[in-house]
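HOLO CASE FILE
Compound: protoporphyrin IX containing FE
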Amino acid sequence: MSMVCNTLACFAIADAFDHSEINEVPQYQKEFPMTTTLYQRLGGADGIARLVDDIIATHLANPLVKTRFEKITDMAHIKKLSCEFLTTGSGGPQTYTGQGMLAAHKGMNISEQEFLVVVDDIFVALNKNGIDEDSKKDVLAILYSLKDQIIRV
Ligand code: HEM
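Model generated. Tokens follow.
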């Protein structure tokens, strides 16, 4: 009898416990039931190309950083490298062939504010392209991890 009572008590406790929080499935896994790479969640090669176009257009329209990007002489090359960078960094099938972040930004004296503005512009592009919240957090973590190789180097 006491065994039955214990079992019933366990069921009662289990029922009373709210599982919704620990069982919360990230948004991207609801959309893509299998595990997906960040590369897939950014829309693959086409999605990343659209993102890079929008990121550069946003920089060129932003008074806080536009002069930095207006100076670029070979924009097609920088866009190609940016696509490669995003592809490699998000687990996609392409190898980045450009310089490291330290070498690429050395001597530019990029400020903390400019770094933040560039990150904000990237978020404008991510939002415009309907990228989900979890993937945006993944991108933010990658960008933040690079700050010491970019700011005032
Ligand atoms: C937030 C993280 C950033 C990432 C991931 C990033 C990524 C890159 C990449 C992949 C390149 C091409 C490298 C190469 O030429 O081999 C590049 C170049 C460049 N970046 Fe960044 N960047 C970041 C932040 C910034 C900031 C904050 C600025 C200035 C406000 C900036 C200004 C530039 C400029 C002007 C170039 C082109 C240099 C040239 O003409 O060769 N970047 N960046």
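CASE NOTES: Confidence is low (pLDDT under 50) at residues 1-5, 10-15. The radius of gyration is 22 Å.
CLOSED: yes
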